[in-house]
Design goal:
Blueprint: E1 11-14, E2 18-21, E3 24-25, E4 32-33, E5 40-44, E6 47-51, H1 54-59, H2 82-93, H3 102-111, H4 129-141, H5 153-180, H6 188-211, H7 221-240, H8 246-285, E7 288-293, E8 296-301, E9 310-313, E10 322-333, E11 342-344, E12 349-350, E13 355-367, H9 385-388, H10 390-416, H11 421-435, H12 438-457, E14 460-462, H13 465-471, E15 476-480, E16 491-497, H14 503-513, H15 520-531, E17 540-545, E18 549-553, E19 559-563, H16 565-570, H17 579-587, E20 591-597, E21 600-608, H18 615-624, E22 628-632, H19 637-647, E23 651-653, H20 661-670, E24 675-680, H21 685-690, E25 693-697, E26 709-711, H22 716-752, H23 760-778
Parallel strand pairs: 15-22, 15-24, 22-23, 24-25, 25-26
Antiparallel strand pairs: 1-2, 3-4, 5-6, 7-8, 7-9, 9-13, 10-11, 10-12, 10-13, 14-26, 16-21, 17-18, 18-19, 19-20, 20-21
Helix pairs in contact: 2-4, 3-8, 5-6, 5-8, 6-7, 6-8, 7-8, 7-11, 8-11, 8-12, 8-23, 10-11, 10-12, 10-22, 11-22, 11-23, 12-22, 12-23, 13-22, 14-15, 17-19, 18-22, 22-23
Length: about 775
């Protein structure tokens, strides 16, 4: 049966009466109707309707009771799991508080502490004994008492982590004892004991790799385990053969086992918070929604929703998928862990994880599953940034492919130095163990994962791993001024009449010319006219000149031109006698609107647009990481330079029409710069499309946006923060790789050329790994 189709009526048999169904109300008059004996049956919007009479069927209007936001009806879907029904009963008895910040929740999950899963101030009191008994009775009535409770996935995570920790501890202990027991001497018993503990440690390490769940970012087990396994086999052979180098072979085996287990354990500790936050995010977004089917609402899990379907989101509910609002207005926290509330209404995009606090929304699903903005680079194995970003791949490739090369070079050098088979093996193992390092393989991946999660906590979603990498290489960032650095809400500040004209007459002409427009300048002019009780002139035949202004015919029949200096030049209207006033207004950072009637200039209007809060901080974020800010604007040069001085921007590109900005960006790219553009979708599409990295405000979750960086907010600081985070990640990841690979590669070469003993290579590699991880821990991802 299709999911949208109404289920068959529930029925039972009564002695002597035959089958009897539960009565349903007549859709027209509300009278109870037996579905099996209804006078009329019809299907509307893929659902059955049962009528008590033919007249009710004729009078029924399926659109009469419908509304853009239908009320949800609680119903049990066929095939729902028992645990879901139990969860519904529990939700009816105990109110669920808003979930805490995912970062705090992830920290609690990583440590295994239950009391970290909810905020103390909002946590509900534990259910009383009577409540628990009542809930048990309800479960019995629902036929769910015997249902096996679902095991929480985070419990499995903690158990697996504990087992892996025990095995790694055993491996490190075995490696340590194999080295420390050198104090017991070189007797066969002592050597045998050292071999045994080293072998046990190696076996524990192998068991940990076999039993534990591996992350795709980890190096291949063959690359990491080959050195300890071969080292232990060589130690066993040397001990059995009573080789003169048996003590050195056992010591090297212990060091290799210890260093390998230690680096694996350290990386697991470093990744614990990341994995916990990912799991917490997946749980947050795995919510049910009210899906609209044929005018009715049915419950659907997030995994079952598909793009194009309609859902309803009520107050206190979380949006489980990326959507575009088609009806309703609500106050929402726009993303997971967002601290502020914003209004969302028809046409706005909302990302999965947004919580509705007030109001109600009807929306169309834009992205679902792993295509959601908050899931693409964190959970999708085909697009995860910590798997595909070049910084993440370099260390893994070095550990998997560089280690065999180092081992082969060391073996050849030992062979050339007339070493025996055991000596050649020890040199190769030492070089292999130095490069095949878990920290080297994963340090870049951890930096990328931490940065992507930090960006999501600020409402920033990178589109792809490639976009994230390009954002870290940006050298120039261009701001489309209006709506990013400026509020985009100008106000009329000056009205200067020229000749015998009155200021009110000038304002009336401009208001009449702009009466049919909706852009910010027209809105400001019409608002000023209403405030001054000025009636717009009866202008006709208006013709909009894109980016320049308006030409029309005034009520008196004279030609009317309203716009920029460029439009006046195009219409051959002189502005020389008003040049002083125009320059004065532009030097104050105001946009100048010129008014000409009958071929001569009659007025000058100055509009002042405020600087957005945080605009100066956004510029500083870029300057801190060496990115050069550039200002793009359609205003005159003097106006742009006044704004640039206030924001500490040195480079401006003035008097650019929106359609011309794409060409200007291409010129910057051709000059060798990696260019990012910060703007708004639709308005600044030409510039955004031409950029190497496009940063679009309020575009996250949109069904049509393909921009490199998508923001759930309209804060320009978040746009600059996205570029700053990518730059810092690139710098810190490269430094971490250098700190890990440098000592390992240096001592591997030293061992290969017999400059240093083999035991020094794993020691140096472990020291470099510790230094890289200590720096990783000391520096938060957002610093």
């Amino acid at each position: 049966m299709p999911e949208s189709e109404s289920p068959l009526p529930e029925r039972h048999t009564s002695r002597g009466l035959g089958p009897v169904a539960i009565a349903v109300p007549c859709p027209t008059c509300g009278a109870p109707v037996d579905p099996l004996r209804a006078a009329r049956v019809a299907i509307f919007r893929e659902a059955f309707r049962y009528f008590c009479s033919g007249s009710c069927r004729e009078q029924y209007d399926p659109d009469r009771a419908s509304s853009p936001l239908p009320q949800p009806q609680r119903r049990r879907e066929p095939g729902h799991f028992a645990s879901e029904a139990a969860e519904t009963l529990l939700a009816e008895r105990i109110s669920t508080p808003p979930l805490p910040d995912p970062a705090r929740r992830a920290e609690a999950l990583a440590s295994g502490a239950d009391d970290g899963l909810t905020d103390d101030a909002t946590s509900p009191a534990p259910p009383s004994e009577s409540t628990a008994e009542g809930l048990a009775d309800d479960l019995d009535d629902a036929g769910l008492a015997a249902a096996e409770p679902a095991r929480h996935p985070l419990l499995d995570l903690n158990v697996a982590s504990d087992v892996a920790g025990i095995l790694l501890a055993l491996a490190m202990l075995g490696g340590t004892l194999a080295v420390l027991l050198v104090l017991a001497g070189e007797s066969p018993v002592a050597l045998g004991a050292r071999v045994i503990v080293a072998t046990v440690g190696c076996a524990a390490l192998v068991a940990e790799y076999v039993m534990a769940e591996r992350d795709p970012s980890e190096a291949h087990p063959l690359a990491l385990l080959s050195a300890p396994v071969v080292a232990c086999l060589a130690a066993i052979f040397a001990a059995i053969a009573a080789h003169p180098k048996s003590g050195s072979a056992i010591a090297l085996a212990g060091l290799v086992v210890f260093s390998t287990a230690a680096t694996v354990w350290l990386m697991q500790r470093a990744r614990r918070g990341i994995e916990a936050e990912r799991r917490a995010m997946a749980l947050e977004l795995n919510r049910s929604a009210h899906r609209v089917v044929g005018g009715e609402l049915t419950s659907a899990r997030a995994a079952d929703l598909r793009p194009g379907e309609e859902i309803i989101v009520e107050a206190s509910e979380i949006v489980p998928v990326d959507v575009t609002v088609i009806a309703g207005t609500a106050r929402v926290a726009p993303w997971l862990s967002a601290k502020t509330l914003v209004s969302r209404s028809e046409g706005d995009a909302v990302v999965a994880g947004a919580r509705v606090h007030e109001g109600r929304l009807r929306a169309i699903v834009s992205w679902a599953g792993h295509d959601r903005a908050w899931m693409r680079l964190t959970h999708d194995p085909r697009r995860r940034a910590d798997l595909l970003a070049p910084l993440a791949r370099f260390g893994k490739l070095a550990a998997e492919r560089g280690a065999p090369i180092a081992a082969a070079l060391a073996a050849l050098t030992a062979f050339a130095a007339d070493q025996d088979l055991l000596g050649i093996t020890l040199f190769a193992v030492a070089a292999q163990a130095a490069i095949a390092n878990a920290v080297l393989a994963e340090i870049g991946s951890v930096h990328v994962a931490r940065t992507v999660l930090a960006a999501l906590r600020h409402g920033i979603a990178f589109r792809t791993a490639e976009a994230f990498d390009r954002a870290g290489r940006v050298s120039t960032a261009a701001f489309c001024a209006r709506g990013t650095l400026l509020l985009g809400e100008p106000e009329v500040a000056n009205i200067e009449a020229i000749g015998d004209f009155e200021p009110e007459k000038v304002l009336a002409l401009v208001a009449g010319a702009e009466s049919g427009a909706t852009h910010p300048v027209a809105t400001a002019v019409l608002r000023a006219a209403r405030a001054r009780s000025v009636r717009p002139d009866g202008v006709r035949n208006s013709s909009v000149q894109a980016g320049l202004g308006v030409t029309a015919v005034a009520s008196g029949g004279q030609a009317l031109v309203v716009g920029s200096r460029a439009l006046m030049l195009k219409e051959r209207i002189s502005v020389a006698h008003a040049e002083t006033k125009i320059n004065e207004l532009e030097s104050m950072g105001r946009t100048v609107l010129l008014v000409a009637l009958g071929g001569r200039l009659v007025g000058v209007i100055g509009l002042q647009d405020g600087i957005r809060p945080g605009a100066r901080a956004a510029v500083q974020h870029l300057l801190d990481v060496g990115v050069e800010p550039v200002l793009l604007s359609g205003d005159a040069r003097e106006t742009c330079e006044a704004l640039a001085r206030a924001l500490d921007i040195e480079h401006v590109r003035p008097e650019l029409l929106p359609s011309e900005r794409g060409e200007e960006i291409r010129r910057l790219v051709d000059g060798g710069a990696t260019v990012a553009v910060v703007g708004r979708t639709h308005v600044d599409d030409a510039a955004l499309t031409a950029a190497d990295v496009s940063v679009a405000l309020e575009s996250a979750g949109s069904g049509s946006a393909e921009w490199s960086v998508q923001l759930a907010s309209d804060d320009v600081r978040d746009a600059a923060w996205a570029l700053r985070l990518a730059h810092l990640c690139r710098r810190e990841a490269r430094l971490g790789l250098t700190m890990t690979l440098g000592p390992a590669l240096g001592f591997a070469l030293a061992v290969a050329f017999a400059v240093a003993p083999p035991a020094m290579a794993p020691i140096a590699s472990l020291a470099g790994s510790l230094a890289a991880l200590l720096r990783l821990r000391a520096r938060p991802e957002s610093s």
